[in-house]
Design brief:
This protein is an alpha/beta fold and 393 residues long. 41% of the residues lie in helices and 14% in strands. The strands form two sheets. The chain has a seven-stranded mixed β-sheet, sandwiched between helices. A five-stranded mixed β-sheet has the order 8-9-12-11-10. The structure holds pyridoxal-5'-phosphate.
Length: 393
């Protein structure tokens, strides 16, 4: 099956008793009864498939995990309570028996940077931040720090830079360091990090995977060498997705291919519109032929599909002008998320990167006139018209 067909069928139609539902229902039971103690023993020992206890597994969640595992091409998957719990578990599992040092991309979702500094830091884990698009700098940091893990995003938040993941994965493989990739922005429809040599993939399922702005969830998918530790952690701590969110996420994924196709096409139009708008100083878009990582992008991404994300700077704008633009939007939603069916605009300085100091943001190139659009599936003319009237002085 091609990936677009797998998004629709995989994980469903498991035989349950005497019938086989066409789509997976919501199972809310916390525990299960067995025909015999022998069967209980086999299920709890994982020698026979079947649910045991809600922290360990759940039939609705297991169906989603089977789908996620297949889409990313991993040995196993855990659907998590949030994207951050997936990232937390990924870093924790990688460092359990390795040096307590992480190399992290300098541009990432703010909470991921905060997690490394404010949660792992006080526990003795040192983080070295590198420009993940500068391969020699990364190679130098890898040799110098000998880390226990490397963490990067397929498309770096919020300036939409794309690091050479295939080459980074090869360097990590040679150094025997696990590579953790947050693939939230790309989704497995555009890039599959495990196929490029990464070891652990994380998602905020809250975004494209669920796709309708009504789920908080995450996912972690790993290769064989790393999955057992992750499963043990998950079964012990239980940062797992609840059955209702699992159901909604699986339902959302059925239209992932259609949504991503439309979002990517709409984003190309939005990027071209902004690039010629007199009030726009600069546009950041992975499909821009002049993008600093254009070579990497053409190697890693399918042609004409560069995510639904576009960032831009309003010429000469300080916070009051940015606020005015945001408040003039009619259809486009001012909201702090991405990947939904509706178009959303986020102000990184006040949302995703709020926790970083102004100096830190400035160092990263996140200016006070920067906005990030997550382009939705609406009629593109309506999106362009709304942006145009909001930009008018
Ligand atoms: C790239 C990326 N990774 C992880 C997260 C965290 O996900 P969640 O909010 O589901 O915990 C986000 C949230 O915006 C994100 O944008």
């Amino acid at each position: 099956m091609k990936i677009e067909s797998k998004t629709v069928h995989w994980g469903d139609r498991r035989k349950t008793g005497d019938f086989r539902p066409v789509t997976t229902p919501i199972y809310t039971a916390a525990s299960y009864a067995y025909d015999s103690m022998d069967q209980l023993d086999r299920v709890f020992a994982m020698e026979e498939s079947g649910p045991s206890y809600a922290r360990y597994d759940n039939p609705t969640r297991s169906a989603l995990e089977e789908l996620l595992r297949e889409l990313e091409g991993g040995a196993g998957a855990i659907a998590c309570a949030s994207g951050m719990s997936a990232l937390h578990m990924a870093v924790l599992s990688a460092l359990m028996d390795r040096p307590k040092h992480v190399i992290a991309a300098n541009l990432m979702y703010g909470a991921t940077t905060s997690m490394l500094m404010n949660i792992f830091g006080p526990m003795g884990v040192e983080t070295t931040h590198v420009d993940i698009c500068d391969l020699p700098a990364f190679e130098g940091a890898l040799a110098e720090t000998k880390p226990g893990a490397v963490v990067m995003e397929t498309v770096a938040n919020p300036l939409l830079r794309v690091g050479p993941m295939d080459k980074i994965a090869e360097l990590c493989r040679r150094a025997e360091v696990p590579l953790i990739v947050d693939n939230t922005f790309a989704t497995p429809l555009l890039v599959r990090p495990l196929e490029l040599g990464a070891n652990i993939v994380c998602h905020s399922a809250t975004k494209y995977l669920a796709g309708h702005g009504d789920v908080l969830g995450g996912a972690i998918i790993a290769d064989q060498a790393h999955f057992d530790t992750i499963r043990t952690l998950s079964r012990t701590i239980g940062p797992v997705m609840i059955p209702f969110e699992s159901y909604l996420t699986m339902r959302g994924i059925k239209t992932l291919a259609l949504r991503v196709e439309r979002q990517c096409a709409n984003a190309c139009r939005v990027a071209s519109f902004l690039a010629t708008h007199p009030r726009v100083e600069r546009v950041y878009f992975a499909g821009d032929p002049k993008h600093p990582d254009a070579q990497t992008i053409s190697r890693l991404f399918p042609k004409d599909r560069y995510t639904g994300l576009v960032a831009f700077e309003i010429a000469g704008a300080a916070r009051p002008e940015v606020f005015r633009f945001m408040e003039k939007l009619n259809m486009v939603v001012r909201a702090t998320s991405l990947g939904d069916v509706h178009t959303m605009v986020l102000y990184p300085a006040m949302a995703s990167h709020r926790d970083l100091s102004p100096k830190h943001r400035e160092r990263l190139g996140i200016r006070d006139n920067l906005l990030r659009i997550s382009v939705g599936i609406e009629a593109v003319d309506d999106i362009l018209a709304d942006l145009d009237q909001a930009l008018a002085v």
